[in-house]
Design a protein that fits this description.
168 residues, 5 strands, Rossmann fold, 7 helices, alpha/beta, 52% helix, 5-stranded parallel β-sheet, globular
Length: 168
């Protein structure tokens, strides 16, 4: 079993790449839980909602045994989000961040145009947020690659990295 997480700042191509990877590799795709959670609560979110998103996100894939799992967003997203919005991180999020749920994190560069979405909050901070992701992934010693460029370039680099893991 191989579990891959897509991570990175908002509007950096995570969902598009996760869908393309799932199709190319015939993998099981787990969509971004936070998006559906926030749509369902029908109110402004609070910090405690991030823990509920964390728990719901984990519940989506933790018991899956499919051979290739592609997870759209990871716990790094929740940690960075919490730090930016609230300047603190809960024990729940930090615990899942510290756990090694993924064989590979694919960090999407914000080198593509930002697209409006009512859930996106920081179009002007994408590069700063990207650097926070690099720092978190590096300091927590996660196995990760950075993808940039066209959708085709991102998919090719991701597939190559996944093939390397499969051959180990």
């Amino acid at each position: 079993m191989i579990r891959i997480a897509l991570t990175g700042p908002e509007s950096s191509g995570k969902t598009s790449l996760s869908q393309a990877l799932s199709k190319a590799l015939n993998g099981t795709l787990f969509l971004e839980y936070g998006r559906s959670y926030l749509e369902d609560i029908n109110r402004p979110y609070v910090q405690e909602d991030l823990d509920k998103i964390c728990e719901g996100h984990l519940a989506q894939f933790k018991n899956c045994s499919d051979s290739i799992q592609i997870v759209d967003t990871d716990f790094v997203v929740l940690k960075v989000w919490s730090m930016v919005k609230y300047t603190t991180v809960s024990e729940t999020i930090q615990s899942e961040m510290d756990a090694n749920h993924f064989d590979l994190h694919i960090l999407c560069s914000p080198d593509i145009p930002w697209e409006y979405d009512p859930m996106r909050e920081h179009p002007e901070m994408r590069e700063e947020l990207f650097q926070m992701y690099v720092k978190e992934l590096t300091e927590s010693q996660k196995n990760y690659i950075i993808v940039s460029g066209s959708e085709k370039e991102r998919l090719e680099k991701s597939c190559k990295a996944i093939a390397t893991i499969q051959s180990e």
